[in-house]
Specification:
By secondary structure, the protein is an alpha/beta fold. The protein has a 7-stranded mixed sheet, sandwiched between helices. The protein is globular and about 40 Å long.
């Protein structure tokens, strides 16, 4: 995410006073760290990424061009040792095989930025909407940048209100109350 998108994500978390936030796709942990810094002191940020000892296999067959996995030893490195680390729970699992029912939801806000392949984005979106509380917010990254992400978001917009944030790759969905 660029700085502007990160600022918007942080502002959404702060303005909504989200106490339970779920992130799909930890990467180096910058988003989780900023979400933790911009939520109430008793908030919990749950961030999901592939295991550190990931063997290269995904639960869904994904074209190699859609595999966006980086050096596993860096997952979450930006929040490890930070003053906000206690607010962040790292879950290491493939989001397709993850037992979403074991996550500490319902969540006020979900951020989907994992695998950008259609089947993963669709699965992450469907599961996220199940663990999102009524009136909660779901945010997708890379809307307009990846065809599969855009397709899932556009399909989801047929069932819930979704707005693209101009000048960003973010789309925000609002689960009805």
């Amino acid at each position: 995410m660029d700085v502007y998108e990160l600022a918007l994500m942080s502002a959404i978390a702060k303005v909504t006073a989200a106490k339970r936030v779920l992130e799909i796709g930890t990467y180096e942990g910058n988003t989780a760290l900023n979400l933790a810094a911009n939520t109430p002191a008793d908030a919990l940020i749950v961030t999901v990424d592939l295991p550190l000892n990931w063997d290269g296999e995904l639960a869904i067959k994904v074209p190699q061009t859609c595999v966006n996995v980086f050096e596993r030893t860096n997952v979450g490195r930006q929040f490890h040792g930070s003053q906000f680390e206690a607010k962040i729970r790292q879950v290491l699992a493939d989001s397709k095989t993850l037992n979403w029912g074991e996550l500490p939801g319902p969540f006020d806000m979900v951020f989907v930025d994992g695998c950008h392949y259609f089947d993963y984005v669709k699965s992450d979106t469907d599961n996220s909407l199940r663990v999102l509380r009524p009136g909660g917010i779901i945010v997708w990254h890379d809307y307009g940048a990846y065809q599969d992400v855009s397709r899932v978001v556009d399909e989801t917009a047929k069932t819930i209100s979704v707005k693209a944030l101009r000048g960003t790759r973010l789309a925000v969905g609002f689960k009805p109350s």
